[in-house]
Amino acid sequence: MTLANHAAPAPQSLNDNAFRQLAAVPPEVEWFANLRNPNTRKAYQADIRDFTTYTGIREPEDFRRITRAHVIAWRDHLVQRELGSATVRRKLAALSSLYAYLCDRNAVEGNPVAGVARPTSATATGEGSTPAISAAQARALLEAPDPNTLKGKRDRAILATLLYHGIRREELAKLRVKDVHEREGVPHLRIRGKRGKTRHLPAAPVALRLISAYLEAAGHAGDGGGALFRPVKNNRTGTLDKHLHPESIYQSVVRHYAKKAGIDASGVGVHSLRATAATNALLNGADIAKVQTWLGHANISTTRIYDRRNDRPEDSPTYRVSY
Questions:
Q1: What are the domain boundaries of the chain?
Q2: Which residues on neighbouring strands pair with residue 188, listed in sequence order?
Q3: H, E, C per residue of 10-57
Q4: Tell me, what DSSP letter sits at residue 255?
Q5: Among residues 232, 254, 268, 218, which one has the least CA distance to residue 144?
Q6: Which residues pair with 312 in a beta bridge?
Q7: From CA 16, how far away is CA 6, in angstroms rounded?
Q8: Which of 1.25.40.20, 2.60.40.1180, 1.10.443.10, 2.60.40.420 would CATH assign to domain 135-314?
Q9: How far is CA 263 from the centre of its chain?
Q10: Cα angle vertex 284, ends 293, 264, to 5°?
Q11: How far is it, in rounded angstroms, from Cα 22 to Cα 15?
């Protein structure tokens, strides 16, 4: 469902026909067209398609016949498919977002997702499902790329940027050369995060040194508006002046070098490095409220899943027992 399917090409001003076509756009289509983040749009599109397939919805108007019983049945179906709790919660959130919009437009009388119990999240239990790696493993990962090749220099800089700043892979992929900048004389990274929010993180000296070495070898330090981290080869088009794809960062950098460093790559991803950075910062005395801002979390409860200061084995009462 897209708005473009329901409206004629936009003229400089609306004629009567175009006005009528836009006025007739179903609110379900309006809701989807209003999702500005492409990642959210893609995920929610798949989630709503999952729901419509399960319930047999074929036309936008069919959404008006859905009851809470339909939603509960779908939730139970998702659980039976052994989908993760976070996935089930996101799918229910997508459907709830759609119905909230329909309620706002007076297209339905109520939101059938309201009141439907959702699987317990990691935030609610206080435990994160993303594994952090140890400080020794982090050092081994940083040293895994070959420092004598352009790719190795780039990948060392990428891993250091992830491990020292706790940013998401999508945020790293969007970095431009000019995003490494100074604020009041202190080097910072300008991070463009979720929901269009920008945060400025003081840059770690280790990461800065590796980024400088990579830029010197790559030769694009003067291209301020260009991508910071770029492909070192492109067999299909030959174009190197572009941003790396987040999936490439995950597969070809993080997982590749985790395996090379002898770390169990099956449980290590870019988010593991984010969890590692957050956990390490908290263990070394960082204020949790500042870590929340640093990570770009909207809610501090999300940050708390990385706070394992009370779970260190060496602090267990076990080692205080003496007979």
A1: 3-119, 135-314
A2: 181, 202
A3: CCCCCCHHHHHHHHCCCHHHHHHHCCCCHHHHHHHHHHHHHHHHHHCC
A4: I
A5: 254
A6: none
A7: 15
A8: 1.10.443.10
A9: 23
A10: 90
A11: 11
CA dihedral 26, 94, 292, 312 (to 10 degrees): 180
Find where tokens 């431009």 sit.
176
Give how far Cα 179 sits from Cα of 171, 173, 202, Å.
Answer: 11, 12, 12
CA-to-CA distance for 180 and 172, rounded, in angstroms? 12
| Model confidence pTM above 0.70 | no
Which CATH architecture is the domain 3-119 placed in?
A: Orthogonal Bundle (1.10)
Mean pLDDT rounded to a whole number for the chain: 82
Residues of the chain with pLDDT under 70: 1-29, 32, 36, 121-130, 235-238, 265-267, 270, 310-315, 318-319
At position 158, the amino acid (one-letter code) is: I
222-233: per-residue pLDDT in tens?
999 999 999 988
